[in-house]
Amino acid sequence: MLRLRLLSIILAISFAVFGSGCSSNGIAITLDTSATTIQQGQTVNLSVSVTNDSTNSGVQWGLSGPGSLENVTSVSVVYHAPSVVSSHTTATITATSVANSSVTASVTINIDAVFEFTSISLPAATVGVAYTGTITAGGATTPFTWKLSSGTLPAGLTMTTSSDTTHVTISGMPTTVASSSFTVEVTDASGNSITEAFSITVSVPPALQVASGALPAATVGSPYTATLEAENGSMPYSWSSSNLPNWLSLNAGTGVLSGTPTATGAFSFSVTVTDSSQPTPQTATATLTVTVTNNTANNSKLNGGYAFLVNGFDSAGHFSAAGSFVADGNGHITSGTMDSNDPANLVLNQSFTGTYLINPNGLGTVTFTGTARTFALSLMSAGGGRLIEFDNTSAQASGIFLPQTPSDLSSPSISGNYVFGLIGGDPDGNRYAMGGEFAADGAGTIPSGILDADAISGPVSSASFTGTYNSPSTTTGRGTAALTVSGIGTVDCSYYMVSDSQLLMMEIDNVAGQNRRIMGGEVLAQQSPSLGAATGVLATTSLISGTLTSQNQVGLFTTDGSGNLTFTADQNSGGTLSSVSNGAGASYTVGANGRVTLSSSGIANSDPILYLVSADEAFVIGTDANVTFGFTELQTGSPFQTSSLSGIYGGGSVPLLSSGAISQVDVATADGNGSVSFVTDSSSTGTGINQNATSTGTYVVASNGRGTVTENSSETAIFYMVSPTEYWSLSTDTNATMEHFQQ
Fold first, then answer.
1. Residue 53 and residue 21 share a domain
2. Which residue in 137, 143, 136 sits closest to 170, CA to CA?
3. What are the tens digits of pLDDT across the range 235-251?
4. Of these four, 308, 360, 542, 633, which has the most CB atoms within 10 Å of its CB?
5. Interior CA angle at 113 toward 111 and 119, to 5°?
6. Is residue 218 part of a domain?
7. What is the mean pLDDT of the chain?
8. How many domains would you assign to the chain?
9. How far apart are CA 213 and CA 228, in angstroms?
């Protein structure tokens, strides 16, 4: 049982505090709060009344100390204490009159730490399937000491303490169907102990099945490969087939289909997979079809070296991969290198070759032979584009690929100030975001840096760091970096160079026996970081805390160059559409390093932090439990009209919020007169893999760049134009899919 400290019942307290600098207009603030002492993770409602304020402007809210402010308005706010604090602490909330900033009222909230288990359940397990479960504790001084005080773990599982001792991980491969009960004891640095009972049920694995969906199309005379996928059962698998066309063969051990088609047509055949279950192996059979068309491919559009990055989920949890490859312009990947990371496996420097096919419509597929991964892609006319994983529905990932600059690759120079934004999962599998700024000396040292991180447990603010890095390979563009971050620890990364001013980076920490952060994102050279008198398009994604519901925003972020801002946006919360805007007295402050703090901005559930890349362009890092993450960039070309959206745009979904989300790549063709058509490749656990789906609709664009798409008499998307060649799109359905389109 958890050992909790009893708290006094705190009655609602109402009091007034008058600022020492009151003006002759007699403005006064009365601040009401429901409690002044709470436990970690709890919330307090605060409200104000402002007397003698002829402007009716209300107040701005400020916070000193841990926690976050949510549901901010000009007259009320909700304070959310951190979910875990290691000792008793305080936070001070201040209300400042907008009409007279010398008039303030404040209240100090006492946060009572509670030594407790912060996770009290473990997921179910399956025989023959890799298992990971995490037990955490907090509210006391570390280091913690953990032990199994009674009972036994299921056969095949072991318990390992994390390096920071705040949690233990139970992991391994269950071998026996059973239900095991046990008790875990944790002791803090002062010798206080608490215990909690846990159980893990190990079940029979679900039935083996062929997981491959629609196979990639093939082209007459072009080499073809596709990798079959199976789900459930016990690995390794073996494959067999019947009725294969005479140009196609199947590798029994790897499940790779390969060959060169000689004629057009739709070729259907049967495949059977057999697992290694004992004493009786399972089998599963499926009928698949490969469609072969004449060689009308635009393979020359993919030619040269490219760096890529994808984020998402696979069967083990959060997944990230980064790498580079060389395309020959004729459908072949002549060389490639990839790093990938999920809670079960970290794979570095994996070499591959492959094939690709670019269709006339601008969509295509690329298969990395030796990695068992196929991606669907959409091309942008300027080179590069969007990627999604397109080989089986248990792996959902999306990202970008960009052409590498040959001159920078041959003589790389990583020097000066850089800004980064990373998104993924924390060691417990929850959404996690990180962004910051650092200086690189050009000789392998990062002498200074600062970052903010956001997690479901609360934000990390202004953490300083130093680090080292090595120069990238002049062949692949791959390099590594190691950061030492105050309050977080070591963050090891690999990166792939696009140019001297742009890197694609992922975390590659691998701690034996426990989960780890799985993150990836971009690093951009910082130039003239400022917020002038300008309007930008700001797009953010978040996951409502405690649910798998997406809450995404896209809108206009306007600053006046003097510290005042306006924000108006559209929001989709799991299919519920709403308009959001900033509170009274919305403002911003730009630090010398490009770190921007906001007040009453209306963005997300509490004011995020911005890290400026250049003038009016920034990564957005949340400070809320929903873990907001996004980007804002300068809008040009206004006033807009329907004819502003004209031509062919390649697009795709941004990094996914949950394993059940839909990933997709698209080509949108707008005629400049209000008609638009889409060709889409998509993948999801619910609908499987779908290729070359087409749809048509109409669109309108307002003068501020906000537009809507209507299909079959229903509004299906809201979009905001960055320029006539670029826009962000938010679907109106329950998926709230955020996509980025560019010509």
1. yes
2. 136
3. 899 999 999 999 999 99
4. 542
5. 120
6. no
7. 90
8. 7
9. 9
